[in-house]
Specification:
Distance between the termini: 86 Å
Number of helices: 10
Strand order of the largest sheet: 1-2-3-4-6-5
Order of helices and strands: HHEHEEHEEEHHHHHH
Helix content: 40-55%
Shape: elongated
Largest sheet: 6 strands, mixed
Radius of gyration: 28 Å
Structural class: alpha/beta
Number of strands: 6
Strand content: 5-15%
Length: 305
């Protein structure tokens, strides 16, 4: 059909494109089953209880998502990708983050807190609160450890007693992922998210994990849709432009840092010379006014030497 794309034309497809992620996990039909499998793969990898069902709270809508602009959560700097609630009332939020730095954990915690604080309405009791599970897929290294999947909760430091299970933060650093390094189900998912050839990867995984057949169908529907591919390409262009700006800012920052370092070094050298001269002149019993005149130091500075 004229309004559809030939999948053979797609040389590279970014599975972390958040427009595609929203479609994959929150579109009507099989998305709840796909989303549930992904969440449970996270739980299984850290030996936690899995869930029986999920209800999507941020359903995909082509009309609403069409020409979607980047919206930024207050003081957080990122947009919610997927949000759902499990059969026991736990809220799960899933974020895809392509860029970040060492301060990113504070942002994750802030966003978890923002979602947790919305669980209670005025006058409701605290026992009506439920866990909020934050799952963060990072396409950058947060630290130098080899940990691919880290799970953070609130524990007492000495006896490791769990204070509450209401805070649960999962961080997955995709750049560290190596084949078969995690539990089987999570391995399959991370192979999808880190794939350089998504069609080939899915064809291989489908043979071992049936749910991936639904993922494959979603992908095929997505790339055949002219409207969705237009939005996908807009997002890719935005990410590409944003990366160029970040690289330029870092380059300018490094150059400015070198320049500032040189200037600071010169200033430090001059100051040290002034202090050395002042000390020698002070040892020779020269009056402070004369020392100040030739070194540029104040009377107070000379008196402290």
């Amino acid at each position: 059909m004229k309004n559809k794309l030939n999948t053979k034309q797609i040389k590279y497809f970014n599975p972390l494109n958040d427009y595609f992620i929203r479609y994959l996990f929150t579109d009507k039909g099989s998305s709840e089953t796909i989303l549930l499998d992904f969440i449970n793969s996270i739980m299984i990898n850290v030996n936690m209880k899995t869930f029986r069902s999920v209800e999507i709270l941020t359903p995909f809508n082509l009309k609403k998502n069409k020409n979607l602009k980047e919206t930024i959560a207050p003081k957080v700097g990122r947009r919610l990708d997927v949000k759902c609630i499990t059969q026991n009332g736990s809220v799960v939020i899933i974020e895809i983050q392509l860029q970040g730095n060492s301060r990113f954990p504070e942002r994750i915690l802030y966003y978890w807190a923002a979602n947790y604080s919305k669980l209670l309405k005025h006058g409701e009791r605290y026992d009506e609160l439920t866990p909020v599970i934050s799952i963060n897929l990072l396409n950058f290294n947060l630290d130098k450890t080899k940990n691919i999947h880290s799970c953070y909760m609130l524990y007492e430091m000495n006896n490791k007693k769990l204070l509450t299970d209401h805070l649960q933060i999962h961080i997955i650093e995709l750049k560290k992922f190596k084949k078969n390094s995690l539990s089987k189900d999570l391995n399959y998912w991370l192979k999808i998210f880190t794939s350089k050839n998504l069609e080939v990867s899915m064809s291989e995984i489908v043979k071992e994990k049936p749910i991936m057949e639904e993922v494959q169908k979603k992908y095929n529907n997505f790339v055949k849709s002219k409207l969705m591919m237009m939005e996908y390409e807009k997002k890719e262009a935005y990410l590409y432009g944003n990366q160029i700006m970040l690289d330029e800012e870092r380059r300018l920052g490094r150059e400015e840092g070198i320049k500032e370092g040189i200037e600071q070094g010169i200033e430090k050298g001059i100051k040290e010379t002034q202090i050395s001269m002042a000390k020698n002149m002070k040892n020779d019993k020269i009056d402070f006014d004369t020392i100040s005149k030739y070194t540029g130091l104040s009377i107070e500075e000379i008196d402290k030497l």
